[in-house]
Amino acid sequence: MTSLSRTRLGATGPETSVLGLGAMGMSGMYGPSDREESLATLHAALKAGMTLIDTGDFYGMGHNEILIGDALAGVPRQAYQLSVKFGALRDPAGGWGGYDLRPAAIRNALAQSLQKLRVDYIDIYRPSRLPAGSDVEEVIGTLAEMVKAGYVRHIGLSEVGADTIRRASAVHPISDLQIEYSLISRGPEDEIFPVLRELGIGMTAYGVLSRGLISGHFSGTQAQGDFRAMSPRFQGENVEANLALVEALRQVASARGISVAQTAIAWVAAQGVKNGIDIVPLVGARRRDRLTEALGAAQVQLTPDDLAAIERAVPKGAAAGERYPSFAMADLDSEKKG
Predict the structure, then answer these.
(1) Which CATH architecture describes the domain 6-226+261-301?
(2) pLDDT, greater one: 233 or 84
């Protein structure tokens, strides 16, 4: 297996692999997961040179961080980078309870993440959301104190818009913005991309396969506990329309001799080159076979003709349905237009 090349994540961020591993699916968000296969996948990712591992302290109510801590036990600390989101509240039944971004809550969340992950510092620490009314300057100021104390190396953002990026950057350098970006989720292009380029901020793109919808493998069914059952894009006529886009994309992929998933991942990476932004796609593989497929995307160089064919197959704005339910969309600062 060819080792992944490296890239700098923004002007002030860490050096990471050109693809990162999103570990959320290993903690039940897509239905039951297999612990041993999850651990094996994490180890395979590291062996392939995938150094950036993304998690959230609310994934599985801490399960994801503990799992990653187990997988990384004995691995030299300099061999990987941890990106951790915080702030989302959960309840014992697995429900969601808003966000707590008070300074004391941030310090408490960080302390627990350090313990669960079994590390002395976190490479990139970021609020999972900054909903309306959040004191951006206070949140980033608190994180800056944690950087100064040595518990955090870099500050990131997640799902925020252009104005919030500017406000945050004025308080402390920002390594990267984590935001959903894929062939069928192209919202960041118009207002957010120019700000990232101007300020030298990188981007970690999650949802590059739209939670499996455009992976070429989605069967149309979800297991019990799979949060995609609430997603508008996976419901009724929407999912049928979106899977029709996948079939159009499959024709382009087949002509190149690559998979649908590899095409979609390579397209995201190509947009970084096109727009002058350091974009690291996060792949949510929770099995070794899916990881191997995703790693193959790093070897794909899409030509201008390929990109034009992909655009014809999946035009901008072609997706049916919003990317989150309405209550979750309301918390997305990134969806507010300037």
Answers:
(1) Alpha-Beta Barrel (3.20)
(2) 84
